[in-house]
Write a structure and sequence with these properties.
The structure is a homotetramer.
Chain A lengths: L3 E2 L4 E6 L5 E7 L9 H11 L16 E2 L3 E2 L2 E2 L4 E6 L19 H7 L17 H17 L3 E9 L2 E2 L7 H12 L8 H16 L6 E8 L13 H9 L5 E6 L2 H4 L4 H4 L3 E4 L2 E4 L7 E2 L2 E2 L4 E7 L9 E5 L4 E5 L10 H24 L3 H4 L1 H4 L4
Antiparallel strand pairs in A: 1-2, 2-3, 3-7, 4-7, 5-6, 8-9, 8-10, 10-16, 11-16, 12-13, 14-15, 17-18
Helix pairs in contact in A: 1-3, 1-9, 3-9, 6-9
Chain lengths: ~375, ~375, ~375, ~375
Amino acid sequence: MRNTFGSNVTITLFGESHGPAVGCVIDGLTPGIDVDDEAIRNLLSRRRPSSIVDTPRREPDNYKILSGVFNGKTTGTPICIMIPNEETKSGDYLFGPARPSHADYTAHVKYNGFEDYRGGGHFSGRITSALVAAGGTVIPALNKLGISIGTHISECGGQNDRDFSSSEAEMTEEIRSLQLKNFPVLSDEAGEKMIGQIEAAAKDCNSLGGIVKTAVTGLPVGVGEPWFDSLESQLAHAMFSVGAVKGIQFGSGFEGTRLKGSEFNDPMRLNNGRTVTLSNNNGGINGGISNGMPVTFSVAVKPTPSIARPQQTVNFLTGKEEELVIHGRHDPAIVRRICPVIDSVTAIVIADALVTAFGPQVLVKGKAIWNTDL
Amino acid sequence: MRNTFGSNVTITLFGESHGPAVGCVIDGLTPGIDVDDEAIRNLLSRRRPSSIVDTPRREPDNYKILSGVFNGKTTGTPICIMIPNEETKSGDYLFGPARPSHADYTAHVKYNGFEDYRGGGHFSGRITSALVAAGGTVIPALNKLGISIGTHISECGGQNDRDFSSSEAEMTEEIRSLQLKNFPVLSDEAGEKMIGQIEAAAKDCNSLGGIVKTAVTGLPVGVGEPWFDSLESQLAHAMFSVGAVKGIQFGSGFEGTRLKGSEFNDPMRLNNGRTVTLSNNNGGINGGISNGMPVTFSVAVKPTPSIARPQQTVNFLTGKEEELVIHGRHDPAIVRRICPVIDSVTAIVIADALVTAFGPQVLVKGKAIWNTDL
Amino acid sequence: MRNTFGSNVTITLFGESHGPAVGCVIDGLTPGIDVDDEAIRNLLSRRRPSSIVDTPRREPDNYKILSGVFNGKTTGTPICIMIPNEETKSGDYLFGPARPSHADYTAHVKYNGFEDYRGGGHFSGRITSALVAAGGTVIPALNKLGISIGTHISECGGQNDRDFSSSEAEMTEEIRSLQLKNFPVLSDEAGEKMIGQIEAAAKDCNSLGGIVKTAVTGLPVGVGEPWFDSLESQLAHAMFSVGAVKGIQFGSGFEGTRLKGSEFNDPMRLNNGRTVTLSNNNGGINGGISNGMPVTFSVAVKPTPSIARPQQTVNFLTGKEEELVIHGRHDPAIVRRICPVIDSVTAIVIADALVTAFGPQVLVKGKAIWNTDL
Amino acid sequence: MRNTFGSNVTITLFGESHGPAVGCVIDGLTPGIDVDDEAIRNLLSRRRPSSIVDTPRREPDNYKILSGVFNGKTTGTPICIMIPNEETKSGDYLFGPARPSHADYTAHVKYNGFEDYRGGGHFSGRITSALVAAGGTVIPALNKLGISIGTHISECGGQNDRDFSSSEAEMTEEIRSLQLKNFPVLSDEAGEKMIGQIEAAAKDCNSLGGIVKTAVTGLPVGVGEPWFDSLESQLAHAMFSVGAVKGIQFGSGFEGTRLKGSEFNDPMRLNNGRTVTLSNNNGGINGGISNGMPVTFSVAVKPTPSIARPQQTVNFLTGKEEELVIHGRHDPAIVRRICPVIDSVTAIVIADALVTAFGPQVLVKGKAIWNTDL
């Protein structure tokens, strides 16, 4: 389905970096969800370049909801959100020399030369603003059900943020604090060091990658499906739609493979009548299904491909080798801006998985549905 | 779609560990593909427990093709492969105390107590034999097109295998060699050490995890889709259907996030008129689409959950905390047996992605289609 | 998705007429549904040739449930039902001369000559036994919720059955009576005349078609989706999967197009607090969504293609025109045998639409879910 | 998937009658297809009310392509077409008394009262303009491949148009002529009589239904799938998404059920080396797969529900019975305006089925692909 994702709550993406608009269609949301313009604007502003560590392209993100919302609430029919591209300067973009680590070459072959190459076209990070607009629609609804989603930059430029607390209550508090930060880290001191590294890379005409870590609290037991629609499958599927993502790991992930079974297995205990685990190496998921513990995962973000240094490339128009220097200024690191994107993608997957597990009304009724036997 | 995966080539899984049979339905395979019984048997035998490092359960895997194959070739209609469960001893299995790190608890909640709990039921690794039977149907067809898929144990018990060669030709040769090995490693010396570690863990009533690494050579440029059906999304989605998998990374993955853009970006050059990259940090995929370089990824395999040591758990029948000792013998590590599963899952995803990109005849015509402009 | 249908409750078909078995995989059924062997056997026996008006091929339909059922109840995981082909005599079947009105020619072109041509292969009516086995699993569950599904032969050989009563209670009673009849008509006198016509056609080496009419009572308001997943879309989609079906009409259908708006529009009134309509020209569906009235539709069944008369054809092996006489004996009319198939297909669609509208538990909780606001 | 349809070429609909815009996202179209603004405008104008027989609402249909088209050609990425609603007068619409034969009541129950009720909201025929915009994108591409699609009003107000010619060449010519007519009939004399009947009904504050008949010529053999994705299933599924459609029949349809097998079976002959049938009772489809003859089907269009006469209804706000008079003027018959909608829906289904059968390049290469063995 290429640009459509989900089973019961679906999202369809469209748009090119320098076309008239980017946007999305979200279908299957329960009727009666409050659509909170401020939440959408806030989330979009968190994704927008705004600081020294980002590109200077400044899109106002004047999104417009074309359908599916009436009197401030979802109607249950498809919500189309359009975000016009207002700051496009197509003159900056060449056609022919493929930018290494970008989709220029693969898109050119796949689309037989008919691709809109300007600014990466449909492969541009610009399209993630549509994901974020969708996230801004879904996240407040999940929050009302007691589900929180947050992402922090866990590593960048050799600097590590401290980890989420193991206490779910504290973790939920940390998630809340992350929404308010321009540079989403748990330790502002670590954040300062990361920013220093990013600035240094920028000055050096270079770029950095990093690792971001996400936590979801408040998710009930029983969300996800066996085998092909495991919650891990769905989250991973959606995350890898974001071009810069090159890896995902749940719970203790790759590091956890070095533990022995006796160390890795999360001991199960009762806590006020609720089954919990004393550790969370499984990242809140067993057999593809949520176990009631926080769902945690890390995502590997590759260094921004566009750097202002000469690079070896091939020009697919001339068929010759070339040296390429990418002009214009670009994000020296996208770890900051990717956090609201990851939150949004997570929210979309969680909303879909909840509806699949409990039926459409779960997005407005929450516990009243998942705590009874319905 | 829970137990069905794929767009044009689809696979549907069914079965429980101790039910009459496990199996799969593969739909959308091009008519005229030779179905090679020996390939299926070989691949199943590679997955089957066979050595000191595996469980002693010995399933003969007498699979039966119920449909979709006629005169030794695919007909183009659904292929149902059934593998009877012949070695089931249900007496060994308890109901109530959840085995930590297993799906017992989550399945119990999700299925309201109606799950077939025996041996993990539908969540048992036993079902992967159906994936492997499907892989045995698809892999020889891909091989005929010049596409090779291989997986080696890259890390287990603190021991590291050497990496695949960077030369595609050598890599293809290494892939071939892995198919012939009982313990699929590139360095047999490293393999011996890993086996020693697994045996030691087994003696200690413990288990090990590990990391396996996969390479796909011979894939043409242009396979995969933008955004939600990126080749990474599809591979990750399918891999996380396997219960023990807790992470996946493409190319240089998490380690690659520590590189700068100038180090990470794969320089592009011409090699006999073909566009290649001098490094492969992107794992052969840009913008979700194959770039003609080998597709490489690593998968994190958690330590086998079943260990013969007392573990803290909760009994969901009594609602009380318990200490659990799992009897019977189990795989002290599944890194060996998971390799053909990963190969199979990869083959299914690649076959689907090829048909989506080039149409159904690509699975029998290969280059004749993808090298022309059709 | 070819051989898979449905959104939340899905069915995947497999099998060829003369292969080892036909069958299906039903996924997404709520855990805890009683699987009633007698219901499955009964429904299969209603589809089985059993009288003078059917083919003499006598398949025992010894179906086997391979997965997804435990202790007599659904587990919530995929149910694979296999029905071995035991009465195959492949010698009867030619390859080359296409039987007119059959899929021989189209399958030969589509599958490049690799199709299993014996007895129509995957296009054989034999595969509908798998649909019926699925129906036998689903129908009793719907019955428990107060939903009844029945189909009668409304026209055959120039004879018309009387119509369903307009009273829903009487209609439900009529539906019940149809399940018990060998030749499902509301007026046995009309049925006798139809049987006479079928026998006359058979003696004349000819065949008859007919129209069958289906009613669904007890369906709540609000089932179905706007636009592409309208209840009519879903039912029509599924019905046309059955090869002999050439038309479907809901409510007053084609005849209703001759009414004026003032005659066609169903007046709305209250009946014990429930909104009802005084007529049912819309067949219980408005805007693709059930309105609480009985869902009614008719299906056009073409005359059985296989007749023992010389027919003009083309031999696709020789590329020459030929005269073909089909030997063996065949159903002179399938209107009788198609009724349980239509019932089954309807049940599968209804189950899926219910789960999509109300969540998975609706199939065991029924009114407790759809009458509250959950 | 509710508002998304298709396997490889997909369409997603959005919009409400009185919201900011209606529109669609078309995904999976081959790159390099010319997007012909005039064709889109023409098709939209054919759907637009323009004569005495239609509603006086006059939407300019100033559609805007937001993505997926570059330099006048498809890029291969999603095409979003937005059509602003410019002529909305919401004051005309009541909330509470359900209009009989409309979706007011079912939508109100399904969406728990959160539906945008103005002018039928998401259930309005207005949304079909988005289908037509999609059709205008796809139809010229099919025409270039030699595939023609046309629909005529075959019956309305007791008047019958003459039927399509049986010669495929003449039929193709007739299809062409239909595109140029304001009132698409084959016999203008019959058309005049129909218009007279519609005018009479309008004067009488009443409305008419009708039957429209569609033909597709030039389709190669082998398009469509067995069972659930039969070409009939796909076409029927898509047609029933249009609210006014209550029936569909292929070939000789319901009337054909009255033929004997010897009369119904289409005799097969050779014509210049091509296999043809001498009659076309099967409507160009056998076993769900196109046989190379014209695909023909009729669609039942119910009388327009909105009539300016008192009607019995129930007010779902007060829960009381009411008499309702619908004010404003409405189409006294939509048989004229539905023809380009049916053409468009047919084109979308055919494009999808072609890509599924032959791969994505078929939409630009046509015969070069389907006539070779690729």
